[in-house]
Amino acid sequence: MKDGFRIFDGHAHMGSARHSGRRVSSDDLLRSMDANSVDRSMTIPYPVVEDYKAEHDLIGRAVLAHPDRLTGAACIYPYIPVVEFRDEVRRCRELYGFTALKLQPQYHGLNPFSSASDFLFEAALENEIAVICHTGTGVPFASPSLCMMPARKYPNLKIVLGHSGGGIHVQEAIVAALFCPNIYLELSSLMPHHVREVLNHLTSDRLMVGSDLPESAATEFGKILGMEIPHEDKRNILSTTADRVFAA
Ligand SMILES: [Zn+2]
Fold it and tell me: pLDDT per residue over 82-103, tens digit each?
């Protein structure tokens, strides 16, 4: 809780990243959560890892040890046999209660627009979990509008656009969410004036905060807490939307 608001971080990473050399342990994440008054985090593996099952197990064990504070996402390199992909999503759901599946088009090289990615969205749908899709860096596959195709094809699937297009593509993210009621925007990396623009077009029950990286947490939550917007909007952005989208 901070300033009377519960905080659900909709985008936090744990594990070891091959592409960046970053390492975040469960202790690191919990310490960062405590330091930033975060109540709960959506814990996501990095997109390029040595062993995706080991990364899921690391997050899964942390989720089971701290079910009130953590929930998890699966993140799997998509060009493995489809049956293996589906089995692993199901394993994460059944064993650890994960509530999301992450797609990182920049590092996975999978285009959400293409029907070649249907299996990924269907794996989320059959496990009744949301898809978090990174947007922004890594265009064209990371263009926010590309998620409109699966959003319209699978109207019961919730799709969260990580970073809301990352500033430069924020207007495209707004359009995607305006035309697809099952698209939600996660606001990390946007400037406060971008968040204002988002709020000019979308209701706050479609928006959530995310830290992405521990060193960004104070800034990401501070930018929402410091905005002069109605109490109800802050409450939705800081926790209520994520509570709903990532319900177990
Ligand atoms: Zn991420």
Answer: 999 999 999 999 999 999 999 9
Ligand 1 centroid–CA 46 distance in Å is: 7
CATH of the domain at 36: 3.20.20.140
CA–centroid distance, 12 to ligand 1, in Å, is 7
- CA atoms of 45 and 102, how far apart (whole Å): 8
Query: Measured in angstroms, how far is the CA atom of residue 7 from the centroid of ligand 1?
Result: 18
> How far, in Å, from the CA of 58 to the mean position of ligand 1?
17
> 135 CA to middle of ligand 1, Å?
9
Q: Per the domain annotation, does 66 fall within a domain?
A: yes
Q: What does the pLDDT read at residue 41?
A: 98
pLDDT at residue 248 in the model: 78
Strand pairing report for 100-103 and 70-75: parallel
**Residue 1 forms part of a structural domain:** no
Q: How far is the CA of 37 from the centre of ligand 1 (A)?
A: 20
Distance 231 CA to ligand 1 centre (A): 27
Number of structural domains the chain divides into: 1
Angle at which helices 82-96 and 118-126 cross, to 10°: 30
Q: Which domain holds residue 96?
A: 8-245
Buried b (16+ CB within 10 A) or exposed e, 69-83: bbbbbbbbebeeeee
Tokens matching residue 9:
């971080």
Regarding pTM above 0.85, the answer is yes
